[in-house]
Specification:
The structure is a homodimer. By secondary structure, chain A is an alpha/beta fold. Chain A has 3 domains: about 70 residues, Winged helix-like DNA-binding domain superfamily/Winged helix DNA-binding domain (Arc Repressor Mutant, subunit A); about 140 residues, 2-Layer Sandwich (Nucleotidyltransferase, domain 5), CATH 3.30.420.40; about 160 residues, ATPase, nucleotide binding domain (Nucleotidyltransferase, domain 5, 2-Layer Sandwich). Chain A contains 12 helices and 15 strands. In chain A, helix 6 crosses helix 12 and helix 10 crosses helix 11. The structure holds a DNA duplex.
Amino acid sequence: MLLDEIARPDDVRRQNRRLVLTVLRQHGLLSRTDIVAQTGLSPSTVSAITTALISEGIVTESRDADAAANRRGRPQVALTLNPDIATIATVELALNLVHAVLFDYKGQLIAEEFRRVSTLDATSDDLIGAICSMLDNLLESKTSGAGRLMHISMGVQGVTDAASTTMLWSPITPDSNIPFGEVLSERYDVAVGVANDCNMIAEALRWIEPDRYSDDFAAILLSHGIGMGLYLKGKPFLGVHSSAAEFGHMLHVPDGALCRCGRHGCIEAYASDYAIMRKTSGRNPKDQPAQDVDAAAYEAIANRARAEDGEERAAFRNAGQAIGSGLRSLFSLIDPVPVALVGSGAGVFDLIEEDLREVVYGTSGWGAAEDLKIRCYPDEHPLILQGCMMTSLLHLDTQIFAPRDAGDASLKRAV
Amino acid sequence: MLLDEIARPDDVRRQNRRLVLTVLRQHGLLSRTDIVAQTGLSPSTVSAITTALISEGIVTESRDADAAANRRGRPQVALTLNPDIATIATVELALNLVHAVLFDYKGQLIAEEFRRVSTLDATSDDLIGAICSMLDNLLESKTSGAGRLMHISMGVQGVTDAASTTMLWSPITPDSNIPFGEVLSERYDVAVGVANDCNMIAEALRWIEPDRYSDDFAAILLSHGIGMGLYLKGKPFLGVHSSAAEFGHMLHVPDGALCRCGRHGCIEAYASDYAIMRKTSGRNPKDQPAQDVDAAAYEAIANRARAEDGEERAAFRNAGQAIGSGLRSLFSLIDPVPVALVGSGAGVFDLIEEDLREVVYGTSGWGAAEDLKIRCYPDEHPLILQGCMMTSLLHLDTQIFAPRDAGDASLKRAV
DNA sequence: ACTATTTTTTTCGAGGCTCGAATTAAAGAG
DNA sequence: CTCTTTAATTCGAGCCTCGAAAAAAATAGT
């Protein structure tokens, strides 16, 4: 509820419905009494809300799993989200790879497809065509019992707009301003969200390790590019026009190494895989970097850096300094928060950690180096997938509540 | 209303009361019909809310100023905030200066006092003593007709905690962790907010130039230190633990010049007045900088920089680069926003502008230099004052609504 | 001077919502 | 087969907003 917005009596019901759905999604299986305890709502209200949700098919009574049997009084009847009320789709768009998955409303995988696409020379129509054909396949294979498609969540490696409809720019494909949101929304008649993959990673981490990543934390993706997903006060932090906190393009060295974005001195120009490759191949830091980096070659360089103190090790140390410099500035703005390092760069954390910490905390003052909480997740793909899924499901949870009378069938195209 | 919080029917009334008070504060004088138009509430609701507000003394009918007389039907009766329902106090704490002011609920000045205090060698008790004695004086001088003191807003040059009760650290005084909020709250039995002066400046700018500074903008204070007040999506951006976006302590040069905060390479260590003085006096960048800079000496250096291309001009160019480097990184995180430059540094903008713009936009790529909207406000004090005042008044507007039945008298100590 | 017109504001009933208290439902315990 | 215990629903009171109708307070016209 925004500060200068008008409130109506039924907004109250909407908010409380959302609350019930939220705890139901968090805990999976909950009796009405449990919901009362979790939410603080009165039993009467919970009763009213759950009967409505059940009659709309959003929630079902799951009497079978009566685990808590042998107790005295009337047994609780467990409620759960009805998996068959809706289907959602996720699409991950990465370098040379498209991954599309269908999930039910409880977040269980229905079907998936991987497809290799040469994204570097794919037009926007190629990409859209590939995505649509994959989604068509999946939707066709789906058994008829499942719910209808109600949301699509895309996680792309690139910059998206704040409205989450368009991919403004991406390193993995030449075209820019690709309106994935509009196209898919038109074709499948559902709401679509297009987000940066780092934001999806952050969303996933919240669900995987809620204790560590709750209200305030940062997920930094170190792979072909460098991005960041940031949560502040429990909400994703989005830019004003574009969607992402472009950590990789904070300034590290004025007029420094050439970045893929066309500017000079970005963190990414020192810490991404292409930056490492450029440096260790003895080329000029202002040379155009490679567009695609071979994972095996990168790993070989990392191993050489581990083996001996040569230019390879120096390159990784530079990367650590660049990331540390960015973190130091970031923490000046928002105070230190837990950091998750994700992607191939997380696999070489041993090579960058020391320099990174030294730059973040300098040699004196303001907090000790051990305050910096970092955890590494070398494989980003499962996180992106789960983040997309949760984004879609949460969208449904906070969208279905709206038309209390008309039931489930009404869905807005708006994202 | 937070996402996972329970909603009750009377929350609706609270929200709508707040809405009415907000438009009333924005427009000053409004009939009930005007309020209907401004808020979108129904006439019945506006009537209910306004009669309640009037009966509680928060709003009054101002029949005298019937400017819109000669019209056909029943004349509108203008409503306005009742200035006498409350008094608020502001305290600005700056280097060697304390400024305390009393305002009424409409924001009209009642009384004020300036006092010179040697803050650099004042203990926390000295500061608290000075502030309390000034407030006591002002409250005593106040005519008995005015309302009782209901909020105090402090704007301090220093870092405050996120709860706005404590000044964690400040360059202008040796003591740290001074609990101004608790002490004043205890002594005067009112809610107290302690905030960084930059946030107050930002708040003031929103009211002075709402067209330019609305949802997203940054106010950067360049004086003895460098701070920033940032608004994103219409809300002040606060850190997680401390209150401010510490723009001045973003990293400019790793292991660079010594900053007053004890670390090395902060933007402030290149762009603040003490940094300019240190540089132009030929001292080592890692020397401890001066604690207090004479305004006349600073101005003299600026004039020498304007006159000839020597080390003075170079110092200001370095400052421009440092600020530009910070802006470039900031804009990577949040997209470019309008910037207000405030304080003594804004008076020498001619000396730093060129380098600043060049660093922000590099020599190529991503947007042109003219996109960067900067306006200068050399005198920060009126802005800090107005910001404190508005902060207090808005606090009342969104606090008084709560106890709908008990009327005006109930006030919570919580900030 | 008096009625008609116009505009503002209030009043009143309908329809939501939450909540507490009482009631009904559905088990195990004795 | 009754008693006890716990879960869930029902019902009335008290909020809230809103639309329609009524009341209030002025000007315009004859």
